[in-house]
Specification:
Two copies of one chain form a homodimer. By secondary structure, the first copy, chain A, is mainly α. Chain A starts with 10 loop residues before the first helix and ends in a 5-residue tail after the last helix. The structure holds a DNA duplex.
DNA sequence: TTTTCCTATCGTATATTTGCGATATAGGAT
DNA sequence: ATCCTATATCGCAAATATACGATAGGAAAA
């Protein structure tokens, strides 16, 4: 890659891309699905369900946390994660602004 | 990575992840934004706008096309791309199904 | 025809991601 | 205290992604 060019794009473009990147692995989609379905937060249950080693799951959780998509708190001997719905709303709104709003005028086929 | 584990997840999870991956680079976000804004389809205009080499832009376009997010047709000496709104709708619906629908019951804070 | 312009693809270098085992850390149980 | 259980982090190997220059191909222009 020589030099990373990502910085030359607008902050919004970078933010959206970072959000999408956090969702760009089926394991992380599966984790979010689990967190969305369970009313309570979960922790190592995820390790039992996913076909991945504990350390790998922990890494995916960390990435989701760094991206702000989930919150994690230490609950005694175990860790407890839950979805950060605010972050989802924020990005959902930005995606809508970027694409959905423009869609109406563009509905006609092109090319 | 030794062995790719992606195949062990459900098809829906893989599809959603693939869609997100296509959006996971600011250059591709910028391309989609351009295509959404212009009523007409564009081509090498993108190269002039983005801070990337022509070959790199072409590669990003190819990825977006492979992911099904854009359509491309050859128009004489130049290529013409446009957003595949159907694909966006499809994935938007799946994301909503996965997350938004579950959100209502989960609105209460956790952790 | 030759030249020019536009785009796609190839080859390559480097960066990042993915995955795992091993290890560290920290709380609970004995 | 020692042991056990749950989770995070480190270090490494392999796979992918990113970026570019060089090159190929094809249509229009000269």
């Amino acid at each position: 890659m020589a030099i990373h060019k990502k910085e030359e794009f607008s902050q919004k473009e970078q933010d959206l891309a970072a959000f999408a990147k956090a969702l760009s692995h089926p394991a992380r989609i599966a984790i979010l699905k689990m967190l969305a379905q369970k009313n309570e937060c979960i922790c190592g249950e995820i390790v039992n369900v996913l076909p991945l080693a504990q350390s790998t799951v922990s890494q995916h959780l960390k990435e989701l946390k760094n991206a702000g998509l989930i919150d994690g708190t230490i609950d005694g001997p175990r860790s407890c994660y839950c979805i950060n719905w605010k972050a989802f709303e924020k990005f959902n709104a930005e995606f809508s602004f970027l694409f959905n709003k423009l869609k109406v005028q563009n509905e006609k086929a092109c090319c």
